[in-house]
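Dear support,

We are seeing what looks like truncated structure output for some complexes. This example has two components. We would appreciate it if you could run it in full and send us the complete token output so we can diff it against ours.
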Amino acid sequence: MTITAGIDVGSGAVKAVVVDGSAEPRVLAHAAARIRRRDVATVVDEVMGIVLAESGVDRLDYIASTGEGEEIPFATGHFYGMTTHARGALMLDPRARIVLDIGALHTRAVAMDGHGKVLDYKMTSQCASGSGQFLENIARYLGVSLAEVGPLSLTAPKPEGVSSICAVLAETDVINMVSRGIATNDILRGIHDSMAGRFARLLKSLKAEGVVFLSGGLANDIGLQASLADALAAERRNGAEIILSTDPLAIHAGALGAAIWGAFRFHRLGTTGAAWTSTEPLPTHESAR
Amino acid sequence: MRDDRVKKDRSMLLQKEMIAEHFQRLEDAPRSGEKVVYTFVPGNLTELIRSFGALPLLPEINALQSGMRGKSKAYIAEAEKAGHSADVCTYVKADIGMMMSGNIGPTGTRLPPPDLLLLSYTGCYTFMKWFELLREQYKCPTVFLQIPYQGDGTLLPEHREYVVKQLREDVIPALEAVTGRAYDEGRLRELLALSARAEDDLVAVLHSAKQKPSPIDSYFGGVYYIGPIFSAFRGTPEGVAYYEALREEVEERQALGIGPETPSGRLDDQRFRIVVEGPPNWTSFNEFWQMFSDEGAVVVASTYTKVGGTYDFGFRHDPGDPLGTMADYCGGCYTNHNLPGRIDMLVDYVKQYAADGFLINSVKSCNSFSAGQLLILREVEKRTGIPGGFIESDLVDPRYFSAANIKNRLESYFQMLRERRRGQVAPGSDATAEVTP
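Here is the complete output from our reference environment:
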């Protein structure tokens, strides 16, 4: 049995998994923690501590980082984000040939083959209006928690359109809507529709078809999923058939992919000896110094 | 430069001395009696200015230097407080803000007021408005040289004639009036001959990037290489000496088969050869460069290093036809090229320099560069078959440099190039794009 860990350092959260990286990878533990202005190293150590405790493993053969985790001192190797999201998505839904990674900073559509090899990609522009952080800011302004955003959006009878170009203008729109007495659910659905429109264009530019797997922090926002399905239905009239898919572990896709590629690498290099064993201190920034 | 992350080449130190000396002369000009002519990089008439014994001063060089030295943010804030919009070119605001803050230049010396504003218009509309603002401030004479835009992709004989006529009837009389000296064509020919020598050496340096590994970085290093020739030193013995030294230094690296110094150290292991379109970001210059060098990416050709002249396509200043050659020079600046011309140049660079990819750095406040860049991207992709990358930043406004965003995009882009290179690898084999083992 090959036991590996994957750590995905994102702009908004750190995700970690421990995986049995055998032929059919199996998730032994997973954890995610928001960074919220904390020192990233502290958050990394925190989630690693959780997944090691929960998995109960006594060794890690390989510790793989991805995302912005290049500097993690106890990682055995670092993998590019697109590669890890592709591989993680493939594990969670083997039919997927596109992964739409909706993160705090940006959204990225990645095309892959049946082995998780990246073939092409497209990203939203640098404007924040397509990002998870933007949605979080709006939610905070509206006084709702992120967990409430999706269900509330689904109840909107009359979505109110917002600027899809610029996050600053969109925020101004929202302030104006609140002062006009527009209901919170209609505002949220308007924002979801605006974001979904951008994502649909992204998928169209990648000539996406078949199963598109949603990963990243917003993958399980059911309001956004509904808006995206609507936007894609409009596109479908133009020929492209897209099936949306996701998984409760979708936020961990990057960490999962890192752990799986870590196991692959471990075998390919014929490595002997573990990256960490339970006789050593927990792998943290402090212990690695 | 603001920090010392990049080991300095000998030529960089030499350039630093030249610039310091030039700015000292500028500070002393009100006392020494030397006349000062403000002008812009694209289409600059340095030899003509110097043939009258005057000193050129280039506001956009000052602005970018302010950006590199961490001063532009405060200058831009000053300009915005005075009513200049957030969307105005940030070079303009950095310059206006610097002026409002006491006009202390990049080397710490005071900049003199202009005796003449010489606007050579080569495709950037903002330059006109910029000098209108400066004219309002300084109440000094202004002369406007209008260079016909290469809308049809070429400078016609009548365009050339029109420029020469303006030089004779407007620009030279204005310089005569300001300096009190008569036009000396013999002197101008001497200076143009010096320019041609320096230009030969610069082109040899730029062409060296065709070698693998490239001994230079044609964008991040390139902006240093073009410094003297794009600013005050064309047609000067110091300029000639600088380019001789630079060429010698680069030829040494060529002979040894080694790469340029970068923020990640000497870049011998060059994994990606890139062509870049658009100006660099100056406020986070080294951080931006390091995002390339950490990935083993070297820039082998760039269009920004042609804004002050497209010498690598064969142009040299010709002492045999002093005014005609200046017309040709101005017409050929990159900013004066139409979109098809810019596409041709990028395609040519990708092929000539055996590039793996090309990237556009789209600058928020420079419409002159940014308009049409997505069209350029698609067309270059189509004609070369290599993928283009697109990032966004700004010239000297640090608020528009989002390091995490740009790094993410560059990382994705370089990964794509790596995957393409491994395109022939059998499915399921190691296509993991691992950064470190």
